[in-house]
Amino acid sequence: MLRFEPKEQKGALPPKGRFSTEERMMNLNAREFMLTPEQRKAVESRSMDIVVLANPGGGKTALIVERIHHLVTKMQVPPESIMALTFTSKSATELRQRVHKRIGITSKAMWIRAFHSAGLQLMKTFPAAAGLQDDFMILDVAERRQLIRKTVLAQQRFRYLSEDELLDHITRAKNGIVLFADLPVDVQRALSLYEGIMREQNAIDLDDMVMKALKVLTNEVIQHQIHKRFHHILIDEYQDINAVQERLVQQMLGAQASRFLVGDPDQTIYEWRGAKPAYMINHSKKAELIELTQNFRSPIPIVDLANHVIAQNTKRDRKPMQGLGEDIYVPVVGRFENEVAQAEFVAMQIKQLIDEKRFRFSDVAILIRGHSQTPVLEEALSNADIPYGGELFWSQPAVSSALALLQAIEQPYYNNNLAKAINTPSRVMDSLQLQKLAKEYEVQHLSTADQLLVLSHLPGEWPHHSAFRQRLNSLLALHKDSRLEVSSSLISQLISAFELEDDPDSRSNQLTLYAATKKLLDLALSFETSRSRAPLRDFLHHINGLRSEAQAPGHPHGNVQILTCHHSKGLEFPVVFVIGVQLGIFPNDFFMETEEDLEAERRLFYVAITRAQKALFLTAYHDPEWQPSRPDFELKSFLSAIPSTLAQEVY
Ligand SMILES: Nc1ncnc2c1ncn2[C@@H]1O[C@H](COP(=O)(O)OP(=O)(O)OP(=O)(O)O)[C@@H](O)[C@H]1O
Ligand SMILES: [Mg+2]
C-alpha cells in the first residue's frame, strides 16, 4: 500500500522558537523592491550632511526607512541615537510603522515623531526648563477656543476681535510668521492676556510645542544631553519646514550629528503657515546633494500629466520626472454641467471600478480643495450605496454652528436653541452671565428662552448687550418669517443680519462659519428647485437625513476616503479623484494676489495628482454664480491648460 509522505519542507518557516520575534519580523517583511544605484548611494552615504531632492513617488520616505535600516544593521548605530521627524502625527505614525516593519522592535528605541510631538517630549522630560510644572495641560483646539472666548474675548475692549482672527494671529506669532511687535496693539494685548492665563493654568497649546521646546534647549546642560544622545537626524518633507522648526533642528543637532534631509520644493504647500523651501535649498548647497528623478508610484500617463502641470511654474529648476510604471489607465478629465452631475459621475465611476473587481472601496481617494465641496458629493455617494469616510462636511465644527443658527430660526423655544444660536459666532451671553442677570432681574423661574427675551427688553447695560439684542431680534424676526419664506431666503437674510463674511487675512484651511452657511444656502437653493414648497422645516429634515448617512458605520470592505489635498501629502492611493478643479475652487482665488500665489495653488494641484498609483480622474463643473474674488488678477484654469493628448476628456 502506498503511503502518503509529506514533501520535504525545504525553505519553510523555521520552527517556532528558533528565531527571536524581531528576526521573524524581518523575515516576514523582506523588502519588496530593489533600490536603484542613486537611491543606494543616498542610503549608504557616509557624509554628515545629505540632502535628497526628489519628485513625488521618488522614494524619499522609503529612503528614510532604508537609511535607518542601513544605520542600524550595517553601521551598528544604536537605535536610540536616531531621530526621524515629519510634520504631521499621521505621517509620523506611518513612518514608525514602516520602520518597525523593516527593522523590528529595535525601532521602539528611536524617536520617530512629528515636530510638535518631539517638542512635547522635550517639555515632558524637562518641564521646568520650559517654565512649566510637571503636570501641565495641553489645550486642544476646542479648549483653546473656549479659553479665548471665556477669558480674552469676554473683555469689553477685545469685543470687536473675532475668535478666528485672534486664533490666526496667535498661530502666526507662535510660528514666527509675524513678529509680536508687528501685530496690531490690541492683538498684542489680547495675546499677552492669553499667555498670562495659560501660564497661570500651567497649560500649553498646540503652537507652543515647538516654540517652548526651543526654550528648553537654551539650557546648556539639557542641550548637551540631547546632543550626546542623538547622532543621526532624518527629516521627511523638508520643503515645508518653517523658521521655528528649523531653529529646533539646529538646536538639537550637536557637532557630531549627521543630517539626512529629504524633500521636494515643488511640493511646498504650507508657505501660508511659514514654510520656506529656501532652508532646504540652502542646506543642499553645503551638503552632499543627491537628486532623483524617477517616479515609482504612478504610471507614465499620470507622470507626463504631472510634469506638464508643474512645468507652468516658472520659478523652479527641477528636471521633469520619469515614469516607470505601466500605462493601463489614461487620466480622465471630466467637465459637467453642474455640481450634482459631477458628483454622480464620481459615484458611477467608483461603482464601475468596484463592480469590475479591479479595486476595493478603500483603494479610492477623493481629494478636495475645501470642505464646502463635499455635501453634494456625500449625497451622491450615499445614493449609490458607496461607503465613505474622512473629512466630511457634516462633521466640520462650522457646519454645526451654522445649523445651530438655522435650528434657532425654526424652533427658537426648543431645546436651548436660542441660547446656542445667540452665542454664534462669538459669545455674547454665556450661561454664567445669564444666571447672574436672571437673578438680578428676578426671572430665574422662566425658561432659558424666556429669560433671554425678557433681558432683551430691559434697559440694563452689560458686556455685549447690543450684539446680544441685535442677534436675538434678528433670529426672532427670521423665525416669524419662516412660515412664509423659503429656506434660501431665510439663510440669505441670516448671513447679512449676522454680518457673516470671510476673513481675508486668515489662510487657515478650516471651513469658516461664512463658508458653511453659504454652502447651506446653495443646498437650500437646489433643494427648493426640486420641490414646489420648501419651508425651513423640510430642508432641515432633509439635512438631518444626510447627516445621519454620514455618521453610519463603515462598510466591511472599507471606505472611500474623502480628504483635502493638503492632507493627502505623502500618501498614495490606487485611484484618485480630484474634484472641483475649476476657477474659484481650485485654484481658489480668495487669497490670490500675485503670480506666486497661483504657483502655490498649482503646487497643491501637483501634489494631488501625484498621489495616484493607477487611475486619476480630474473633474470640474459649470457654476453660473461664480464671480472672481479678485477681478484685477487673471486666474488661470488648471484643466484648460491640460492638452487633449495627455488626458481622455468626458462630458
Ligand atoms: N527603487 C524602487 N523600486 C520600486 N518601488 C520603489 C522604489 N523606491 C520607492 N518605491 C515605491 O514607490 C512608492 C513611492 O515612494 P515614496 O512614498 O517613498 O515616495 P516619496 O518620494 O516619499 O513621495 P512623496 O513626495 O509623494 O512623499 C512607494 O510605494 C515605494 O515603496
Ligand atoms: Mg514621501
Which range best describes the helical content: under 10%, 10-25%, 25-40%, 40-55%, 55-70% or over 70%? 40-55%
Alpha carbon gap, first and last residue: 71 Å
Calculate Rg over CA atoms.
28 Å
Number of strands: 17
| Beta content | 5-15%
Mean pLDDT: 87
> Main β-sheet: number of strands, strand sense, barrel status?
7 strands, parallel
As residue ranges, the low-confidence spans are 1-31
**Total of helices:** 24
Bound ligands, named by name, code or SMILES: adenosine-5'-triphosphate, magnesium ion
What's the topology here?
Elements lengths: L20 H8 L8 H8 L4 E6 L5 H14 L8 E5 L2 H15 L7 E4 H11 L11 E3 L1 H12 L10 H12 L10 H16 L2 E3 L2 H10 L2 H10 L2 E4 L7 H10 L5 E6 L14 H9 L1 E5 L1 E6 H11 L11 E4 L6 E5 L2 H17 L8 E5 L5 H10 L4 E3 L6 H14 L6 H6 L8 H10 L7 H10 L7 H17 L5 H11 L15 H17 L6 H15 L9 E5 L8 E6 L16 H15 L2 E10 L26 E3 L1
Parallel strand pairs: 1-7, 1-8, 2-3, 2-6, 4-5, 6-7, 9-10, 11-16, 11-17, 12-14, 12-15, 13-14, 15-16
Helix pairs in contact: 2-3, 3-4, 5-9, 6-8, 9-11, 13-24, 14-15, 16-20, 16-22, 19-20, 20-21, 21-22
This protein binds adenosine-5'-triphosphate (ATP) and magnesium ion.
The site of magnesium ion has 4 residues, from α3.
